[in-house]
Structure formats: C-alpha cells, structure tokens
Amino acid sequence: MKRRFSLVPLFAVSALFLNGANALLQHEKFQPSGDANVLTGRYIVEFTHQDSTYPFAQSLSRTFDNDVQINEQFTHDLFSGLSFYLNDPAPSSVTASSYDDKLQALFDHDHVTSVYPIRAIRRPHLAAKPVHEDGSLAKAISPHHLTQVDRVHKELKHNGKGIVVGIIDSGVDYYHPALGGGFGKGHKVRYGEDLVGDKYDSNEANPIIRPGPTPLDNCGAESKASGHGTHVSGIVAGKADNFTGVAPEAELGMWRVFGCTGSTSNDIVIKALLKAYDIGSDIISLSLGDNSGWSEGPDAVVASRIAKKGTIVVLASGNEGESGAFTVGTPSTGKGVISVASFDNSNNLVYKFKASGLSDSIAYASDASGKFKTGDIVAGDSKVGGTQDACDPSTIPASVKGNYGLIKRGSCAFSDKAENLSKAGAIGVVVYDNAGGEAFGPSAPDAPIPVLGIGQKDGETLLAALKKGKVTLTFDGKLTPVPLATAKTVSSFSSVGASYELDLRPNIGAPGGDIYSTMPRYLGSWGLMSGTSMATPYLSGAIALYLESAKRSGKSIQPSFVLEEFQHYAFKAPAKNGDHNLDSPLRQGAGLIQVYDTLQQKVHITPGQFSFNDTSSTQHKTQTFTIKNYGSETVSYHISNNVSLAVSPYDIATSGYTYIQPINYTTAAAKLRISKKSIKVAPGKSVKVKVSVIPPNTDPKQHIMYGGYVQLSSSNKKVGLDLSIPYFGVVGRQVDLPIYDQDFPYLSSDSEGKVAYEKNETLVFHQHNKTSAAYIVTRFITPTALVQADVIDAKTKKVIGKAIPDQTYLPRNTLNPGEQAQVIRWDGTYLPKSFSLSSPNGIPVSHGTYKLRLKALHVFGNPKSDKDFDSWTSGPIKVIN
Ligand SMILES: *[C@@H]1O[C@H](CO)[C@@H](O)[C@H](O)[C@H]1NC(C)=O
Ligand SMILES: *[C@@H]1O[C@H](CO)[C@@H](O)[C@H](O)[C@H]1NC(C)=O
Ligand SMILES: *[C@@H]1O[C@H](CO)[C@@H](O)[C@H](O)[C@H]1NC(C)=O
Ligand SMILES: *[C@@H]1O[C@H](CO)[C@@H](O)[C@H](O)[C@H]1NC(C)=O
Ligand SMILES: *[C@@H]1O[C@H](CO)[C@@H](O)[C@H](O)[C@H]1NC(C)=O
Ligand SMILES: *[C@@H]1O[C@H](CO)[C@@H](O)[C@H](O)[C@H]1NC(C)=O
Ligand SMILES: *[C@@H]1O[C@H](CO)[C@@H](O)[C@H](O)[C@H]1NC(C)=O
C-alpha cells in the first residue's frame, strides 16, 4: 500500500455520491447531476400538468407523514412540479428500503416526467472594498465612457424608462437614497419578495426558510453579509448626485434567494425565475451559477424556456478564469440565455500614505484600512529585505516598539509576521511585495495589529529612506483613483469558455472589474466589487436602454436578435494593452459592449457567433450568415478574417491533459474561405455569405482552441460601422481526450483516499461491518456525461451488476483545494442489471473476490460504444463476513 498525497496536504475529496444503496436514483425518470453540490434526500419532480402538483403533494404527505417537507410547489405553464426534502430514514436498512420502494411507486405515476436532485448554488465569492466617502469619487471611476453608456444618456436621452429588470440575488437595501428610498408602486424597487429569509443556507441539514413580503437586505454589518444584491441593483438603476447606474430610470424587481450568508438551491432559483417572468420583467438578471459547463440542469432548462418566450435572461459566466479553459458555469451555458464576461474598469481606487522625506505618497491595500494612525517606521527585522522577515522573533529589533515595522513578503504567514512584531511592541506592519508586484492586500484576518501591503519598488524606496533617518507615516484614509494597466481588457478572473459541448461562451462582455456602486447602508452605502456578478447587471442595464430605444423605433426585441445586435458592434480587446494580438472569443465573447453604436446602427447579422466545433466531423466546418440592412442607404463591406490569439489549454509534455491554470496563448490561426469577399446590401435587402474554416496545422494532440472574428469592414463609416462575428474551433477530437488523470482512479480503504492499493494487492472488506467500505478515488481532468461502475466476479470475470447508479453530467476537477478529486463509495452491494421494483435496493454480494470497473464516457462519445469510454478495473476486493 502506498501513502498518497503526502506532498499535497490540501488535498480534499468531495463526496460524489455517498450511498450505493440509494436505488431510487436508478429510476428511469431520474435526471441525476453528478455535481458535487447535490443535496442528498432532496428532489425536484416535474409533471406533465399543473393540476398534478396538488394530488402529488397529498400522496407524498400521506406516504411519508412527518418525514417529508414539501418545499416549493410550481403550477406554471413553463414548469409544473414541486420540490421536497425527505428526512433521513432511520439507519436500519429496512426503513431505507421501504422509503425507496414508496418513492419508486410515486415516481412511476404517468404524470411525473422528470425527477432532478436539488443542487446547492454557492454564493458568489467577491472581495468588496467599502468606500467610506461622500460619493464624490463615483464620477472619477464610472465605467460608462468605456461602453458609450455616457453618450446614450447624454445624446440619446435613453435611461431605461418603462423597462423592468428582474434581479435574482441576495436582496436589496431599498431604503438607500440612490435606490429610491422605499419599496413598491412609485418606487424604483417596485417588485419582488424575499423567498428565503435571513437564516437560509441550503447546505444546512434543516434549512430555515422564512419568506417575507419584501426583498429588503437588512442583515446588518455583524452578519458578515456582503451586500451583493444591493451592489448589483445600483449598477442597473442606481441614481444619486454623483452616481448614475446604467439605466437609472428602469424599474427593478428583486427576488431574494440568498440568506445573509451561505448558499441557495436550484429549486429556489426556479421559483424566482418564474416569479420574475410572471410580473412581466423585460430582462431577468442573475449574478450566480456554479462551475459545471453542462447545460442540462432544471434551472438552466427553465431559464431557456423563459428566453424562448421572449424574456431576455442574462447570466454571469463565472469567476473561475484562473482555473483555465472550460470554466464557464451553468446556468449561463443554457440555450438561448446570455453568458457575460467581465472587463476591467479604467481606474481603481487605492489608499495612499505619506512618508516624511519622500515626495510621492505610497499606494497601499489592506483589510484594516481606516485603522492606521500616524507613527514612525523602522526596519521590522535585523536582516530586513531577506527571505525570512519577522518569521523568527529573535531577529526582530527592539526598536520596533511603538513604531511600524517594515518587512518583505515571504516564507511565513502574514499573521505570523504580525503576531511576532506585535509581541515586540510594533503598532502596525508594512509588508512590501517580493515578486516585483504592486500594492496588495495581505490577508491577516486575526492579526493583533493592522497590516498593509505595498509594491516592491515602493518598499525598497522606503527602506532606503529609513536607513538614512527618521521616517514618519501619515494616513488620510482617503481613496484615490489610479489608472489600471488592464483597463478595457478581460478581467483575469473571468471564466474561460467554451461550454463542454463546444458552444461559444461567454457571448459578450461588460465592465465587472473594480466597479463602484451602492452598498447596504449598514456597510457604508458605497463600495467597489469585482466579478462577472457586476458585468451581468451592467449588461442587463444596457439591454434596458436598448429595449427602451427599440420600443420607440420598432426594432426587434427577441432575445437572440438583441444579443446579436450587441455582438456585432462590441469592442474587440487585445489580450494585453499595448499588444496588437486580439484576445480569444473564449475569453471575451464578441467583446466589450458599445451601447451607442448598438442602438444607432441599422445593419443586422444572424447568427451573431460561430462554433466550428472540433475536427471530428465536417458538419460544423461551414457556416452561413445573413446580413440585413434595416437602414435607408446602401452599405458595402469588405469581408476578412481578423484572427485572435488561440487558447492552449494543456502543456502535454509536462502535465498531460491536466488543464493549465490559467490558460496559455499561442498564435496559431485558422484560415477562412469566404464565399463573397465584397458585398453591397441595399436598404431592406439581405445577403447570405458562407464561411468555411481551415483550422491551423497544429498537433491535434494539443487541442488548440483557435479563434477570431469574421470582420465586415465598411467602405463608408458614416453610413454604417464595421461589424464582426466571433468564431472559434478546436484542432483535434474532443472524444480523444482522456477522462482520468494519470495515476487515477485508484482503490482505497478510506474515504479520504489516503491509502492507495496497488493492482496486485487485495483489499479486504468486512461485510458485517457497516462502517467499512471500498472507495474508488478518481480525478476527472475532462468532464464526462456518463459514469458507470460495475461489480465483477474476479473468478468468472462476469459482471454481476452495478456498484452505484449511473452518474451523468459530471464537471471536470480542477487543481483547486476541494475540487481536485472525487470518491465513489462501494458498500459491498450491487444493483442487478435488470432493475426491478421488487429489489430496488443494493443486493449484498456473496462472499468471494470481486473487482470494480469504472467507466467514464468521453466528450461527444457514444454511450453504446465501449471504445468511447475510459475504463479502469481495480485490484481484487475480498468480501468476507
Ligand atoms: C459630488 O461630488 C462633488 C465633487 O465632485 C462633491 O463636492 C459633492 O459633495 C458630491 N455630492 C454628493 C451628494 O456626494
Ligand atoms: C512567529 O512566526 C513563526 C513563523 O515563522 C510562527 O510559527 C510563530 O508562531 C510566530 N510567533 C508568534 C508569537 O506568533
Ligand atoms: C459539436 O459537435 C458535437 C458532436 O459532434 C455535438 O454534439 C455538439 O452539439 C456540437 N456543438 C455545437 C455548439 O454545435
Ligand atoms: C481587427 O480588429 C482590430 C480591433 O477591432 C482592428 O484594430 C483591426 O484593424 C482589425 N483587423 C482587420 C484586418 O480587420
Ligand atoms: C506557454 O506558451 C509559451 C509560448 O508558446 C511556452 O514557452 C510556455 O512553455 C507555455 N507555458 C506553459 C505552462 O505551457
Ligand atoms: C506488487 O507489484 C509491485 C510492482 O508492480 C511490486 O513492487 C510489489 O512487491 C507487488 N506486491 C505484492 C504484494 O505482490
Ligand atoms: C469496521 O471498519 C472500520 C473501518 O475500516 C474500522 O475502523 C473498524 O475497526 C471496524 N470495526 C470492526 C468491529 O471490525
């Protein structure tokens, strides 16, 4: 037996699926989602008819008495169903099996069409920077000049009047003066309700749901609430003397789906979607999602149905960009909805302090801003500038007493450094970066004295100054705008496409990095946040401006048409400012929205984006677009291929098919064969153009994701601007990608996978011991749509049944703690091949020796073809009594 992961102490395993005997998941109507966020014992049932809801609820209550809690009931023409929680059955398997039998019988009813597991949806993690000032900085860091929203307000006088934006989020402090100061008719926040209450957290065993009539976020500073929904609301429609949201006259609805802290769940999100749709929202905005790139969950399905009915649904693409390719999350991968990428603002706000003797003040970041007092600064270590500053109490000079200590970043934790300096009597810590970086916020949550971080250059200047004499620091606690080097490029955190099934996601981008907006009054009223959570309401506001204009001009307001309009005229950003290479559509979609052009231009192209898919089929290699002139003058264009950087998702030589975190770029470019190089389109007329791709000649094993834009360069910019269509494709076949990482799966006797059994070692399994089990530890480097586990008799080599029910739509693992691997528990039972209601539970195997075989379907694989699976067979497992 080998010990595994001794070098990776952070290794954490999430329980993919705990109980092999939970046979109801074998039901043909069950739509399992193998997401690690599945909440066991909680289900959503969908019916053919709305009138099935009440009778089903009654049968459920009759069958399970006090052991069932019916959570939500949906009687809607877009979704009829209900969600319920089953209390844990008593540990005796007899009870468990009768539970399953009863559920099976209920699910067998003809009116039940699908059964889904309830999934937790994590609260978006965002770093908020409260801005304690009077709002005078708001103008300085408004992003509206990046998106032409300033011109739309000023020149076109559109401000979202008559448009309703429904937001699904953590509630809103509608008493904030910039958000209308009240709720209901006559107020900016006109619609909505609280679906959950302050204490709700879907991850708790018994979530406390206390709905309320209004969506007020009144959590209070002590609750650790983030104020997310209030920030999002202000981005759409906030208005104060010095602050203007994107659509300041739009009406808002807010459906609160998060408590003060913790997660929500997909049944609550479905309820909120339907309510937002029912009040007649023109746009529904959701700054939430999870990290699976499949699009088959019930919330994604309901969002798609709403979009099909003509209501625009805008969703965050996710903040997992640092984890590499294929990180755009569901439900933004749903069909017909809009997935939004984040672009960085042009300015950031930073704090600065003054050091006596130095002419320029020094920018810093800190969690403890506001706690710094005037004081002298001295070296915080006798060898200051070394690699161990303040890690060893014996090298801290006595002179730090009553002063700030200056030290370099590195070796030990910021809180240890602070603890050591505090013991020596320092009043605060100034840490400078060790890798040439800029001001950073050192994370030292429980430090006894305040800690701040500055850039390396500033640190060295300060060090030189204090070697010459006394230096005093003064703090004014004010934020100052400073230009960002990454302005108008894709934020580093913004998730990277495509969807697992190679649809182009994200579709488009909006400002989301360092965005200033309203915060609940209990958090100081104003603040900065960063995330695709901010880009999403920004786009929703921009669409409100579009709809207001379209309702006057008679332009189409169909969701796909509206998205296409924004896509054609978006700003295509370079990967890096100063570099001429365009960033990939997999990062920026069509680019950063340009709202004035979108509202004013009269030429339209369908579709707005292309996926040339991978190289396994010829079917997707040629695409056709139609360009239509809605204007009154003839337009003409030269059509060309404007290539972008390609995404290199792997480093095959060193790490195989583990995604590189973050992605790497290459300059590999496709050629396009365009059926017409020059076109003229008369008023009211349309022209069709064919585009065929010749992918770059790279090694198919590298799965390079090339991309670019079909560019239509206008011959007369006064009559019509250039348009472009983002495209991408993959060189290689996705079906060839391995699913398991090297050295996985393996067999283990413990649930954390600490002990790995070799193929020639026998794991002994005591059947009478309910706590012993065999575990398959696996790591998916590629997502998989189907996982099956067979129990094989080691002697006869025959498959006797399934070790667990089939798992579908599993996301890929990442290298991040907690997401690195998954465990499948085998309890010594099997599900017979021909599943029957009379034996719905696992049948214990008889004594003997067995092997487990784990099969995972390749992307785009055919589930009927054995060769499309990655297959692994364990060593022997001896089952004794
Ligand atoms: C607006 O900004 C100006 C400075 O630009 C400042 O003097 C004023 O107090 C601000 N008003 C509000 C209400 O914040
Ligand atoms: C000083 O720093 C070290 C890390 O190098 C840490 O282990 C130790 O706990 C710190 N001492 C105190 C008193 O916190
Ligand atoms: C790409 O091709 C696969 C199979 O060849 C197909 O299942 C998938 O839907 C295609 N993706 C798109 C976006 O067309
Ligand atoms: C490609 O797009 C960039 C950014 O819009 C533009 O500057 C450049 O001129 C375009 N190149 C071609 C060949 O159209
Ligand atoms: C990223 O690409 C560059 C240039 O193609 C290459 O030199 C480098 O090794 C790559 N990095 C990784 C991690 O693959
Ligand atoms: C199992 O095989 C490995 C080599 O693959 C060998 O080193 C080890 O001794 C074997 N263990 C047993 C129990 O046979
Ligand atoms: C049952 O199995 C567990 C886990 O393998 C083990 O820790 C425990 O000692 C076993 N109990 C008995 C009674 O064998």
UniProtKB/TrEMBL annotation:
Organism superkingdom: Eukaryota
Coiled coil: none
Chain ranges of the C5a peptidase/Subtilisin-like protease SBT2-like Fn3-like domain: 611-727
The keyword Hydrolase is assigned to this record: yes
InterPro entries membership: C5a/SBT2-like_Fn3 (IPR010435), PA_dom_sf (IPR046450), PA_domain (IPR003137), Peptidase_S8/S53_dom (IPR000209), Peptidase_S8/S53_dom_sf (IPR036852), Peptidase_S8/S53_subtilisin (IPR051048), Peptidase_S8_Asp-AS (IPR023827), Peptidase_S8_His-AS (IPR022398)
GO molecular function, one term: serine-type endopeptidase activity
Entry GO terms, CC: membrane
The keyword Hydrolase appears for this protein: yes
Membrane-traversing stretches: none
Keywords: Hydrolase, Protease, Secreted, Serine protease, Signal
Domain PA: 374-462
Domain Peptidase S8/S53 as annotated: residue spans: 160-551
SUPFAM superfamilies documented for this protein: PA domain, Subtilisin-like
Pfam families referenced in this protein's UniProt entry, alphabetically: fn3_5, PA, Peptidase_S8
Xref: CDD domains: PA_subtilisin_1, Peptidases_S8_5
Family: Belongs to the peptidase S8 family.
Name this polypeptide is given: Peptidase S8/S53 domain-containing protein
Protein source organism: Absidia glauca
